[in-house]
């Protein structure tokens, strides 16, 4: 049974005349007769009494008419709902993000711009562990994820928002501050401040360190501000993206890391079969690919 069969049936039930009903649904009379006959055969009942002068509903036809009207109405509502989501008049968008974002990525401003442009879309923000986000995207729990660089599963797409080297940062009076550059193999004796395992840039650094002597991570934090404050007070050193090491008050010193580079990247991930809301979000200012931002 198809919706067109119901449309044909309702037209005939209301017109009670094959020629007028056929004209109303823009088909020839023979096609309407065939459509009604197919519907009756599928239902196993006669829906109309037909004579040479009159067409009228049978008791079965009267019962079916009420349900057909409801079904066609529901179908119209469904089309309107889909069109509304397609046209960004309604729907939802769930954005996942790590707790610490770089200064160039003003997520509150981006979310505000999206809300202003598409007020009918309900936007929700979830902060969490970057390692959980690919699975949450694939499960449909998230529509987008903004996180530090990581491997991208085949069913997801990834846009690089930032890509730069990481540097050693220490207090201005620290023994390391006198160096302009240093190899990571010379750092294992130092006390480190870093994110909790799995958070922020910690997986990048741990992966780079797997073949080196173990680091002494004496402070594990969940945000960049606390990390830099601990470093500023001389309680340890940290490895951070170069842009985070810039301090106008001179309280911190940045030392270039030589040898195999440790690079930081910020990415935006989403499912390949993106919907209209995701596509609109991707086109917002402030989310340009790193290459476009650099030009």
What does this molecule look like?
The protein is α/β, with parallel strands linked by helices. The protein has three domains: about 5-85, Orthogonal Bundle (Arc Repressor Mutant, subunit A), CATH 1.10.10; about 90-160 and about 265-295, Periplasmic binding protein-like II (D-Maltodextrin-Binding Protein, domain 2, 3-Layer(aba) Sandwich), CATH 3.40.190; about 165-260, 3-Layer(aba) Sandwich (D-Maltodextrin-Binding Protein, domain 2). The chain is about 35% helix and about 25% strand. It has ten helices and twelve strands. The strands form three sheets. Strands 3, 4, 5, 6, 7, 10, 11 and 12 form an eight-stranded mixed beta sheet that branches. It has a two-stranded antiparallel ribbon with strand order 1-2. A two-stranded parallel sheet has the order 8-9. It is rod-shaped and about 105 Å long. The mean pLDDT is about 90.
How would you briefly describe this protein structure?
By secondary structure, this protein is α/β, with parallel strands linked by helices. It is built from 10 helices and 12 strands.
């Amino acid at each position: 049974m198809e919706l067109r069969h119901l449309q044909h049936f309702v037209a005939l039930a209301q017109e009670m005349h094959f020629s007028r009903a056929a004209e109303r649904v823009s088909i020839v009379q023979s096609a309407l007769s065939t459509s009604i006959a197919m519907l009756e055969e599928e239902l196993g009942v006669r829906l109309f009494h037909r004579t040479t002068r009159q067409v009228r509903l049978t008791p079965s036809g009267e019962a079916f008419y009420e349900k057909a009207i409801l079904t066609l109405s529901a179908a119209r509502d469904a089309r309107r709902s889909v069109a509304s989501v397609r046209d960004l008049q309604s729907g939802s968008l769930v954005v996942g993000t790590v707790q610490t974002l770089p200064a160039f990525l003003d997520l509150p401003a981006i979310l505000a711009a999206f809300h202003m442009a598409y007020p009918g879309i309900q936007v929700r923000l979830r902060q969490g562990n970057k390692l959980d986000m690919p699975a949450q995207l694939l499960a449909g729990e998230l529509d987008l994820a903004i996180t530090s660089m990581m491997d991208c599963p085949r069913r997801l797409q990834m846009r690089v928002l930032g890509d730069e080297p990481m540097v050693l940062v220490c207090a201005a009076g620290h023994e390391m501050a006198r160096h302009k550059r240093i190899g990571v193999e010379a750092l294992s004796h130092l006390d480190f401040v870093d994110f909790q395992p799995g958070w922020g840039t910690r997986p990048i650094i741990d992966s780079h360190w797997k073949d080196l002597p173990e680091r002494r991570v004496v402070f594990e934090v969940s945000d960049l501000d606390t990390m830099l404050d601990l470093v500023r007070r001389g309680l340890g050193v940290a490895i951070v993206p170069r842009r985070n090491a810039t301090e106008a008050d001179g309280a911190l010193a940045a030392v270039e890391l030589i040898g195999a580079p440790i690079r930081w990247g910020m990415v935006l991930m989403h499912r390949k079969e993106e919907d209209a809301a995701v596509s609109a979000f991707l086109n917002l200012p402030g989310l340009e690919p790193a290459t476009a931002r650099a030009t």
